[in-house]
C-alpha cells in the first residue's frame, strides 16, 4: 500500500511527528486522483516534512508494482526495512510501556489508542495497516483490564478526517467539517479524571461520536456426545449459526467463553443450550471435575537436571548425593514432586473441564500417574482463581500431593465467592529477626537450565516475548525460586536429608531475573520453618507467607525408618484383620541413632484389627528388636541379611526369637517398600 501511505502522510502532516524517530521510505508516484501522470512533488514534500521534524526519510517514485525497487531504495538508504507494524503497533506498545509504571505509582493514568476504521472493518489494499490498527485495539483491551485496579483507563478511537484525496471529490464544507478540532474534545474527555470509561472503542469525525461493541449470535451446537463433528453439520445449520436474533453482547473474555463452557456441559449431558448461561453456574459445575489422568516417566537424569536447575552444584560436597546417580545416598530433591503435578495441570487439559471458562530416589525408569481435580473456583474481580488438587501415584500408592492456584486474567466478575476453606492457608513469619539467612546466586543461564525440567514457557527464554509481557529480560521460573528456597531450608535445618521433608507452601509475589541473588530468610518454630525469599540486589520479596514442615525430633528425629513405619501403619489400617490372622503377635522396635534410642514402635497384630503405636508401650511385646536407623533400612531394603545382622551384633532381639520369622509378612508382603 505504498502509494496510499505516501498520500496519507502528505494529507496529514501532523502524522509526521510520529515518524520522526523512524527511518522512512516515502513512496508516491505523484499521480492524479485517477491514477494517471507522475510527479516527484508529493513524495518530496512528505520527506521534507519528516526531515524538518528531525526524522530520516528518503523518497521513492516507483510504482508499487516495482516493489523490489522500492525496497532497494530503503535498503540503500538505511540498510533495513521499517514496517508499518513497527510504527503503529510496536511504537504504541513501547511508548505505553515506558509510561506504565509511572502511572501505576501515581495511581492514575489515561491512555488513548488511535486505531482506524480500516482496522475495524478492513479496507482494500491496506492489509498491513489494518492489522496493525486492529492490533492496537487488542492491546488497549488488555491494558484496560490490567490497569483497572491502578485507576489506569485505556480507550481506543477510530477518527475520520479529511485528506488531499477527498478534497477533489467532496465539497469544501464537508472537508472543513472533518477537522481534527472535531476529534480532540472526545480525547480530552476520555483523559479527564472524572471519566470512568475504560476499554471502549469509538468512531469519531465531523462532530459525531459513536461507540462500538461486539455482538454474537446464539449459534448452534453441531456435534453430539461420542460422535464426530462434521463440516456437513456446519453447512446444514449455517443459517442458525449466523442468526443474530436475541444476539448476546459479550464485553469480557469470561462472557465470551460462557457459551462455550455451557456447550461443553450440555454436550456431555446431551441437553439443550441455555439462552442465558451464567458464569457463576458454570464455575459451580466445574468444582469436583477431574482432569484426565496423566503419566509421567522419569529416570535419574530428570532428577539431576532438576537439581541443577534449582542451583545445586558440585562445588558443594553435600550436593553430590543429588547430582551423581552412583552416590551411595543418591536422592531426588523433594520439591521435584511439583514436576509431575505441573505436567498433569498443563497436559491434563485444564481447558477441557466442563464448567470452566477459559519414587524419586531410585535409579532407573519410573512412571507416575497424576490425577488433578478442580477443588474450587474463586471470583477475584479482575480474574478467577482455579484451585487444583493434584495427587500423584506410583501404582496405587500416593507419592505426593500438590495444590495449585491458577489465576485466569479477565475471567472474574461472575459473582462467585472470593475465598475457599479448601485452599491451603499461607502463614506470615514471626515478628522477629530471622533465625537464619542463606544467600545464593543464580546464573544468567538459570532459566534456560530450569526449563529443561518441562516448563517451556517462552517468557523465560525469549527476550521479545518477555518484552511483550512488560519485562526487560526473560524472567526466572517461580518454581525455580521455590526450589532454591526449599533446598536452603533442607540444608540449614535437615542436613540435606530429603526423608525429613514433609510439606511446603509458598505464594509467588514478584519475578526474579536470572543472574540475581536469592536470599532466603528462615524462622524456626518447632518442626515448621517459616521462610521469606528476596532478591538481594533489590530487597524485593519474591516468595511470601511460606513455610516448610519437617519431620523433626518430635516425629522420629528425622529417621528414615519413620517412612517405613508410616507405610506399615497404612497397611495395618487397610488389612489389619487379615494380618492378625496370619501373624498373631506383638512386635516391639527400638530404633537408635548415634548409639541412643531415638524412637520406639509397637506393631500389635494380636488383638482386634491390629494397630501401630509410637512411643512406650503399656503392654508386653512377644519380641523386641533393637537396631540402628541405618541398619534397619538396610534390612528392610534387602541389603543386609537379618541373620548376619544378628550375629554381627547389629540387630539385638529380646523375647521369643522365633516370632521374628513372621516379620517377612509385614515387611515384604504388605509394605511394598
From TrEMBL:
Residues 429-542 form the MaoC-like domain. SUPFAM superfamilies: NAD(P)-binding Rossmann-fold domains, SCP-like, Thioesterase/thiol ester dehydrase-isomerase. GO terms for cellular component: peroxisome. Pathway: Lipid metabolism; fatty acid beta-oxidation. The keyword Transcription does not apply. It is found in: Peroxisome. One of its GO terms (biological process) is fatty acid beta-oxidation. GO terms for molecular function: 3-hydroxyacyl-CoA dehydratase activity; oxidoreductase activity. Keywords: Fatty acid metabolism, Lipid metabolism, Lyase, Oxidoreductase, Peroxisome. InterPro entries: HotDog_dom_sf (IPR029069), MaoC-like_dom (IPR002539), MFE-2_N (IPR054357), NAD(P)-bd_dom_sf (IPR036291), Peroxisomal_Beta-Oxidation (IPR051687), Sc_DH/Rdtase_CS (IPR020904), SCP2_sterol-bd_dom (IPR003033), SCP2_sterol-bd_dom_sf (IPR036527). Residues 296-362, 366-410 form the Peroxisomal multifunctional enzyme type 2-like N-terminal domain. Residues 568-668 form the SCP2 domain. Its main location: other. Belongs to the short-chain dehydrogenases/reductases (SDR) family. This is Hydroxysteroid (17-beta) dehydrogenase 4. It comes from Myripristis murdjan. The lineage of its organism: Eukaryota, Metazoa, Chordata, Craniata, Vertebrata. The gene is HSD17B4.
